[in-house]
Amino acid sequence: MHDIVIQVLGVAGLLALVSFLPPLAARFQLPFTVLLAAVGVALGAVIQAFAGAAGTGPFHDFLNSLADLDVSSEILLHIFLPILLFETALAVDVRRLFDDIGPILLMAVVAVFVCTFAVGYAVSLFTTLSLVSCLLLGAIAASTDPAAVIGVFRDLGAPKRLTTLVEGESLLNDAAAIALFTLLLGMLTRKSDGGALEASLEFLRDFVGGVVTGYLCGRAVCTLVEPMRDQPMAEITLTVALAYLSYVLAEHYVGASGVVAVVTSALVIASVGRTRISPATWGALEHVWQQLGFWANSLIFLLTAILVPRLLGKAGWEEVGLVLVVTVAAFAARALVLFGLLPLLSWVGLAQRVSHSYKAVMLWGGLRGAVSLTLALAVTENVRVPERVQGFVAVLVTGFVFVTLFVNGATLRSLIHVLGLNKLTPVERAMRNRALALSMDSIRDRVAVVARTYEVDAAVTDVMVARYEERLQAMDRERQEEAPLSDEDRVTIGLAILVSREEELYYAHFSEGVVSRGVMEMLAGRTNRLLDAVKAQGRDGYRAFEEPFIAFSPWMRVASFLQRRFGIHHPLARRLSMRFEVLVAVRTVLRELLAFTRDKLARMLGEDVAFELEGMLVGRLGIVEQALSALKLQYPDYAVVLQSRYVGRAAIRLELADYRTLQAESIISQEVLTDLERELEERRKVLERLPRLDVRFDVAELVRRVPLFAGLPAERVAVIATLLRARLALPGETVVRKGERGDAMYFIASGAVEVLVPNLAEPVKLGTGDFFGEMALLTRQRRNADVRSLGYCQLLSLDEKDFRRLVQKDGDLRTHIQAVAEARRQPAKPVAAVG
Question: Where is the Cyclic nucleotide-binding domain positioned along the sequence (predicted)?
Answer without folding.
Answer: 708-814
